[in-house]
Design a protein that fits this description.
Blueprint (H helix, E strand, L loop, with lengths): L14 E7 L5 H12 L4 E3 L8 E8 L6 H4 L4 E9 L1 E3 L8 E4 L7 H10 L2 E5 L8 E2 L2 E2 H6 L9 E18 L2 E12 L5 H11 L4 E11 L2 E2 L4 E2 H9 L9 H6 L4 E3 L2 H8 L14 E4 L5 E6 L6 E5 L8
Parallel strand pairs: 1-14, 3-12, 15-16
Antiparallel strand pairs: 1-3, 2-3, 4-11, 4-12, 5-6, 7-10, 8-9, 10-11, 12-13, 16-17, 17-18
Length: about 325
């Protein structure tokens, strides 16, 4: 049996497309290209990447868009380069340098201590040029129009903040320190804000000069495909490497296998008892391996978050 939205040939038309985003592209640019490649308007993404950043950007295609809300809150992993000694208006290399400081006196011990203070559960003020909306207007749009933006701090979790190579060099005659770092963070954490706050804690300022997202939830760079390769597949009339809906859901959620009668109950809104160990977000997978629904089993009876139509029979 094929997942709903797949033609009889077995070539999927619904699922997740894991893209290795190139530098210079906005997430909206990638979605627009995804729509052309998948030949459908029903394409969205799970978590914005800045134009400067590269790496894992998860797209939902057709019914796959229904899963994106469950991926947005996933933990993410990044590799990045932090430059100590300069601050910029955007907290990354795309913005104008607003201040420089001599970073030659920053010791490795001081760096390690500041990193420890930024690890764990912290309060983080998002970058002013983030996509957060203030009274319906993106924060970055307000900044670009010359408005002063003060965003409130919010709780985030930095699960891991590892510092690798440390390079002491100079830029325009000013001593700076470049740090190669790897971070694993909760959803909503801004890595460029970590760079900003690390520099501020050391008294020399800081910003990102490179950022690559290496994982979103259960999907890493090993599943990500560059746009150029996706375009080549389409030109060769080959199917896109969509992650099937059931596999995509199982990569991020616990799974409950349901029989044909239970699947029918879920799809028609009839009551189904929850498991005693049920979670608030569970992938209900039918006997044919198709995704039936994403359900909430936290109460005595199942509630559905989203329901997928029955799979089309193979011909």
């Amino acid at each position: 049996m094929t997942q709903a939205g797949q033609p009889a040939t077995g070539q999927p038309t619904a699922g997740l497309l894991v893209v290795d985003k190139p530098a210079g592209w906005t997430s909206h640019d990638v979605v627009a290209r995804g729509r052309r490649l998948a030949r459908t308007r029903r394409v969205g993404h799970a978590g914005t990447l800045d134009p400067m950043a590269t790496g894992v950007l998860v797209l939902g295609v057709n019914q796959g868009t229904k899963l994106l809300t469950f991926l947005v809150g996933s933990d993410k992993t990044y590799t990045a380069t932090v430059r100590l000694g300069q601050t910029t208006i955007t907290d990354d290399a795309e913005g104008e340098v607003t201040a420089t400081h001599d970073a030659s006196g920053v010791t490795d011990e001081a760096i390690d201590a500041a990193v420890r203070d930024l690890t764990g559960d912290i309060q983080q003020v998002p970058s002013a040029v983030s996509a957060i909306k203030i009274k319906g207007v993106r924060s970055y749009a307000r900044v670009r129009s010359g408005e002063q933006v003060d965003l409130p701090a919010r709780p985030v979790t930095v699960h891991r903040f590892d510092v690798g190579d440390r390079r002491r060099t100079s830029v325009a005659g000013q001593a700076v320190v470049d740090l190669d770092v790897e971070v694993e963070v909760s959803s909503g954490t801004y890595v460029r804000a970590l760079a900003r706050d690390l520099g501020a804690a050391l008294g020399v300022g800081g910003h990102l000069t490179a950022l690559r997202r290496t994982r979103v939830g259960g999907f890493g760079l090993d599943r990500a495909v560059p746009l150029t390769e996706l375009e080549a597949l389409v030109e060769a009339d080959e199917p896109l490497p969509l992650v099937p809906l059931a596999e995509a859901a199982a990569a991020h959620l616990p799974v409950r296998e349901v029989d044909a009668d239970e699947a029918d109950h879920l799809r028609h809104g009839r009551r189904l008892r929850s498991r005693t160990d049920g979670a608030a977000r569970v992938a209900a997978v039918g006997p044919g391996g198709d995704l039936v629904a994403v359900i909430d089993e936290s109460g005595p009876t199942v509630r559905t978050h989203v329901v997928l139509p029955a799979a089309l029979p193979a011909s």
